[in-house]
Design brief:
globular; 4-(cytidine 5'-diphospho)-2-C-methyl-D-erythritol kinase; ATP-binding; nucleotide-binding; 4-(cytidine 5'-diphospho)-2-C-methyl-D-erythritol kinase activity; three-stranded mixed β-sheet; Ribosomal Protein S5, domain 2
């Protein structure tokens, strides 16, 4: 996974109790099923916090584009509330909380460039030794990650040949031993 320079904006205001979310995008649910609310409620419950928060979410990451917008917002919420409420969780503990919310959310605690395995929650940082530019195209087609994985047909027991993960991976990552993936 690769962190990119595209982000939603989140603002947090301490309140007396509860979690309330406001968003500039009317297509984003602002109820307690939103990952941002789930992250806030997780910290409240697990850390015994007796406060509340009003969260304002300004969406810039396209919804349903596979760029991790909701997951990165949940991770940002965990980090922000850890600081706002002076909870004192370290990155490892924040990653454990993040894993309770979703498979790719732990990645967004630290970001950068990483190889992810398991469900996505096992993260191995990778040193990138040369600059890489990306062009991200968004065809304005919204597909939920859940829908993609429900429809993905992979035989997990069939032996598959390893194929190259990146062309020129050795040059980019300086001899990275993780340059092959099973497809």
């Amino acid at each position: 996974m690769q962190e990119i320079d595209l982000a939603d904006n989140l603002q947090f205001e301490e309140t007396q109790e509860g979690v309330r979310l406001e968003c500039n995008d009317k297509n984003i649910p602002v109820n307690q099923d939103n990952l941002v609310c789930k992250a806030a409620n997780l910290i409240l419950k697990e850390c015994g916090i007796k406060k509340g928060v009003l969260i304002n979410l300004e969406k810039n990451i396209p919804v349903g584009a596979g760029l991790g917008g909701g997951s990165s917002d949940a991770a940002a919420t965990l980090k922000a509330l850890n600081s706002l409420w002076e909870v004192g969780l370290n990155d490892g503990e924040l990653m454990e909380f993040a894993a309770k919310l979703g498979s790719d959310i732990p990645f967004f605690i630290n970001g950068k460039t990483s190889l992810c395995s398991g469900r996505g929650e096992m993260i191995s940082p990778v040193e990138v030794r040369s600059r890489m530019d990306y062009l991200i195209l968004f065809p304005r087609v919204h597909i939920s990650t859940e829908t993609i994985y429900k429809n993905l047909k992979i035989d997990l027991t069939k032996k598959r040949k390893d194929v190259s993960f990146f062309f020129g991976c050795t040059e980019i990552f300086g001899g990275c031993r993780h340059c092959q993936v099973a497809v």
